[in-house]
Known about the structure:
Layout (H helix, E strand, L loop, with lengths): L8 H38 L3 H9 L33 H4 L3 H16 L5 E4 L4 H15 L2 H4 L16 E5 L1 H10 L5 E3 L7 E4 L3 H4 L17
The protein binds zinc ion (ZN).
Zinc ion (ZN) binds next to strand 2.
Amino acid sequence: MLREPxxxxxPTALVTALVTALVTALAASLTGCGAAAGTAGGxxxxxxxxxxxxxxxxxxxxxxxxxxxxxxxxxxxxxVPAGTTVLDDxxxxxxxxxxxxxxxxxxxxxxxxxxxxxxxxxxxxxxxxYQQELFAQAIRKYGSEAAAARWVARPGTSVHEAGQAVDLxxxxxxxxxxxxxxxxxxxxxxxxEPWHFELRPAAATDGCPARYADAAHDPRTQR
Length: 223
Ligand SMILES: [Zn+2]
């Protein structure tokens, strides 16, 4: 006939023991977190791109999509199917890259894979017609040629048209590449485009050169 819990010392002691165990466990986990956060904090200090990467991953109004697409553009213009990697030679956007850039990318991709990271190509070589369409889109989006030129180089001036640049993803891998890419000669070019990489062979010994604020500050686009 135990219709109600019987008051007594045992349940109280059990509750006390549970609370004590919980508090101890919580204190231990907090200590663990603190130590981990300290280590991670030091690690992240070197990864100056992280805040920007996070911002872009979250989606910024006015941000260009990382995988460019345009009406009427085909594979032959450099359109890139989803899931394309640096190994996909049947895709002209990859096959028409500068061979030295392509081989540096393959080397980096192999090492990234060992760290469990996939390196996707969102854009590589592209035709002038494709660049023209992307620039036209950017003008519609940003309202002026000057504003558009911060994100998309004017047709005829893009390093993508020369097969000398790639836009890579996902953000976790580009973050890895921003940290390790110099040893392959792979460097970011623009502060506002964490996905855009080019070959800088001297980077293996000298480190990557300073980045331009955006494409509009790149002397190569001032033609
Ligand atoms: Zn690019």
